[in-house]
Q: What sequence folds into this?
């Protein structure tokens, strides 16, 4: 079993008006095989947490820690974090012109595993994973995310999740912009990856819709850079009925 | 970043379109001044949106002086439109000196069907295609005592040839090369510039009717080379000319490819790839002259820049004359800036004198290496060095793959690797 531990994390960004604190002391413990949903209104810091775990240079950690089985994640470069078993499915995957999906997937897999995948099984794995996620075969020849629709980009993120087999996956609003069919396909992909690799999941979402397909063990409600409430799956049901107003009124 | 595209495929078919003052169905009503002096006359009393005016010689690309006589060109000051980006001090005297140094050695290899002969300065083949349009080119015309003529025989297919041009002296020299692709031939020719030289060069490409000619002009000079090359082409009926410029070696390299048409339904594609390191000046100025109806042209130049004082210049002139309805043309330049301290000048010029065209567009982008690309790739475990390499190679690959010659592509990929190794050091 592996553990991702976030302790009293404070994160700020540089703005034109100076430094602005976004996360104001977040603590979380996620074990493999667990699914944690992080919910909350817009601007509450959910995506900041995701990007900070992945190591995006825009976010400055001012205090607190993130450790993976005791190893200091904040000390690791972005690629080292991926090699250590962390994966971020991005909210807005970027297009990388000139780099084909095939080349990208193989290069990344080689980097993560430390050795090149066996060509024959790799090609088969990619093809099978693409079919399950209903991604057109010709996407493999296209450049990374170039000209993909929003929904296609999200499927390709989950394709990577299935192929790279991380220990912990952070899904940053993977459900946004997906229609019901795509949501189902993507959720099945996440569930498959968890079944196969005992992956721990940190699912960041604004809506409860995706929780019908990916069942959380724990639900944390983010408000203004802090966890305002946590509980089991029943908390999500309550949010479905009541929304976030309750928390916003408290802080107002 | 700016991008402009003009596509008016249906415009000409539209009858009763709402009238815009100054426009007819055939496009903008040009000033009556033009009626008196057509662009072909060499006179250029024509207003132009890029700032020209009546009587300003550079206001239209069509009006630029062309002459075989170097004395017709006034001595350069560096303020001329076509020299304003070039550091004349680093030109090795190509614009002022007597170009009497030994011309680089020329060696033909590859398909035996291609022949090479040397003709004297006065030969009738010289000037069939080209007329110098700047002082350096005219100076080379004066001092090149002979010309090498490469002939690709009619109806020959699948020809692959290489002309290795080896510079061996730093005395300013002139060189003249003529390439004739005879009727319905199909060939790829690589002009491989190696060694070092101070060279003013004229190359003429005559692409006869039905011929398909691909030329790759590779500037793989050593660091000290100074090279100004005018590469003019005339493309006949139903012919196809692909010109690929690849420049990465030399201190100052200035290549001016141009294409005009001598028959309808001809097509040209001009591609370029350049990689400028610290201190290098790499300049490409091209002209596509749509002087006949129903021809096609496509231009794409891509460049990468790294290191202090790396300077690239790209000027793309596309001229669609009144005589060229049915033209379809597009030109673009894309630059990728890898480090601080570089400068990329990019000027796409599109002059359109008729509205009866199938398409015309121009685009230019110059962007920094995108940190979001880097973050995305690194978040998938790819280290920074490999990620940069992936992106730059991907960026340039669009041009590399135009060459369709495995050996040359492999060589270029090695060169790009070497260049990238410099960034990371």
A:
């Amino acid at each position: 079993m592996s553990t991702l531990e976030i302790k009293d994390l404070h994160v700020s960004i540089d703005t034109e008006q100076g430094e602005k604190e976004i996360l104001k002391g977040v603590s979380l413990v996620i074990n493999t095989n667990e699914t944690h949903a992080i919910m909350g209104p817009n601007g509450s810091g959910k995506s900041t947490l995701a990007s900070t775990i992945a190591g995006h240079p825009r976010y400055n950690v001012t205090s607190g820690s993130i450790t993976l089985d005791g190893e200091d994640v904040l000390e690791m470069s972005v690629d080292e974090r991926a090699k250590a078993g962390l994966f971020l499915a991005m909210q807005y995957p970027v297009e990388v012109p000139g780099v084909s999906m095939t080349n990208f997937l193989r290069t990344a897999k080689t980097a993560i595993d430390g050795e090149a995948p066996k060509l024959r099984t790799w090609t088969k794995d990619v093809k099978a994973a693409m079919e399950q996620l209903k991604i057109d075969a010709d996407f493999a020849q296209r450049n990374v995310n170039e000209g993909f629709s929003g929904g296609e980009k999200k499927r390709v993120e989950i394709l990577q999740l299935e192929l790279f087999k991380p220990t912990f996956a952070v899904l940053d609003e993977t459900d946004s912009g997906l229609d019901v069919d795509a949501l189902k396909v993507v959720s099945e992909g996440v569930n498959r990856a968890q079944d196969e690799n005992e992956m721990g999941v940190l699912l960041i979402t604004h809506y409860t819709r995706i929780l019908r397909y990916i069942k959380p063990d724990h639900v944390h409600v983010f408000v203004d850079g802090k966890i305002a409430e946590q509980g089991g799956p029943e908390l999500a049901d309550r949010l479905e009925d009541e929304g976030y107003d309750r928390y916003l009124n408290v802080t107002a | 970043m700016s991008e402009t595209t003009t596509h008016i495929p249906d415009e000409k078919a539209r009858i009763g379109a709402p009238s815009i003052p100054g426009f007819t169905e055939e496009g903008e009503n040009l000033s009556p001044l033009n009626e008196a002096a057509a662009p072909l006359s060499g006179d250029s009393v024509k207003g132009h949106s890029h700032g020209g005016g009546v009587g300003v010689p550079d206001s239209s690309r069509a009006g630029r002086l062309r002459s075989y006589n170097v004395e017709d060109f006034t001595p350069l000051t560096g303020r001329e439109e076509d020299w304003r980006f070039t550091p004349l001090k680093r030109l090795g005297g190509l614009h002022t000196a007597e170009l009497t140094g030994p011309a680089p050695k020329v060696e033909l290899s590859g398909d035996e069907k291609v022949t090479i002969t040397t003709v004297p300065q006065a030969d009738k083949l010289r000037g069939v295609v080209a007329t110098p349009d700047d002082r350096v080119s005219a100076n080379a015309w004066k001092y090149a005592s002979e010309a090498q003529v490469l002939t690709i025989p009619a109806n020959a297919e699948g020809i692959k040839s290489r002309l290795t041009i080896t510079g061996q002296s730093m005395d300013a020299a002139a060189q003249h090369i003529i390439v004739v692709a005879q009727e319905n031939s199909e060939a790829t020719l690589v002009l491989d510039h190696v060694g070092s030289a101070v060279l003013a060069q004229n190359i003429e490409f005559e692409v006869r009717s039905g011929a398909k000619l691909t030329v790759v002009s590779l500037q793989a000079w050593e660091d000290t080379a100074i090279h100004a090359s005018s590469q003019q082409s005339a493309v006949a009926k139903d012919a196809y000319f692909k010109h690929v410029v690849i420049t990465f070696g030399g201190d100052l390299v200035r290549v001016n490819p141009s294409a005009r048409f001598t028959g309808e339904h001809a097509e040209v594609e001009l591609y370029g790839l350049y990689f400028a390191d610290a201190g290098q000046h790499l300049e490409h100025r091209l002209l596509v002259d749509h002087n006949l109806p129903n021809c096609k042209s496509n231009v794409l130049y891509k460049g990468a820049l790294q290191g202090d004082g790396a300077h690239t210049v790209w000027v793309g002139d596309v001229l669609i004359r009144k005589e060229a309805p049915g033209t379809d043309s597009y030109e673009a330049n894309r630059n990728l800036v890898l480090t601080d301290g570089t400068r990329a000048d990019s000027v796409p010029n599109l002059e359109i004198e008729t509205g009866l065209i199938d398409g015309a567009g121009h685009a230019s982008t110059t962007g920094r290496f995108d940190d979001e690309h880097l973050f995305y790739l690194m978040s998938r475990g790819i280290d920074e060095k490999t990620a940069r390499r992936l992106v730059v190679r991907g960026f340039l690959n669009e041009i590399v793959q135009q060459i369709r010659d495995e050996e040359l592509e492999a060589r270029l990929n090695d060169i790009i690797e070497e260049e990238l190794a410099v960034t990371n050091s």
